Amino acid sequence: MYPFQYHRATSVADAIDAMDAVDDGKFLAGGQTLLASLKLRLARPDRLVDIGGIPELRGVFMDGDHIRIGAMTRHADVAASRHLAEAIPALARLAGGIGDPMVRHRGTLGGSIANADPAADYPAAVLGLGATVITSRRRIAGDAFFRGLFETALAPGEMITAVEFPVPRRAAYVKFRHPASRFALVGVFVADTAAGPRVAVTGAAASVFRLEAFESELARNFTVGALADLSVDPGEFNSDLHASAEYRAQLVGVIARRAVAAALA
């Protein structure tokens, strides 16, 4: 690794002050991606600001018709939350399917969505449920948060503190996972919300995205059959040694129908 300063923050204000004091700093959450990048010398920050010791960034709380999850809440704690089990079981199951036990006990919600890996699971839930990302500066609608490959709306020095998920009428997440990494080759989050159906896809393209054509059909008829004749253009889909763009496009339709079936079960 390259040399860098290390600061363990005790509060959100302390973390922001420590970050503002350097030109190139990184917040350290669960470290599942950042530490590997440091070891490979793909990242060279001047300072790491460890936010793991800030208690107000952890926890799953019911807040009216929303579930509020602190940015430093581990995947395993999201999966085990009784609030989620009652209000948004699809989100709890999503968290329980991330990586392996070691990843789930270290990785965090905030770290995952800030990294915006194109095959990560949480971005599908943020977009599929119409969540709001809360930062040290503002509130960002989930639809405006993810902007491209590993790119988000976060400004330099801006830190995610929590995410608010509206409670849907019903929802489900299904993914076709890579057998080793357990990342999604294709994952689809389907939700029947107060504002209408939402369908979010991860793993298929450079960034998570919504399928508006699928949403329109489900708004008319929230059944598996409503999606039977729909197809997806693979033009901008990922193509690699794991799956071609055409295969991923085929998977999107299959997985979306499975997600609707799971939501109706």
From TrEMBL:
SUPFAM superfamilies linked: CO dehydrogenase flavoprotein C-terminal domain-like, FAD-binding/transporter-associated domain-like
Top-level taxon of the source organism: Bacteria
Gene3D superfamilies assigned: 3.30.465.10, CO dehydrogenase flavoprotein, C-terminal domain, Uridine Diphospho-n-acetylenolpyruvylglucosamine Reductase, domain 2
UniProtKB keywords: FAD, Flavoprotein, Oxidoreductase
Ranges of residues in domain FAD-binding PCMH-type: 1-170
Molecular function, one GO term: FAD binding
Protein name: Xanthine dehydrogenase family protein subunit M
Organism: Ramlibacter aurantiacus
Lineage of source species: Bacteria, Pseudomonadati, Pseudomonadota, Betaproteobacteria, Burkholderiales
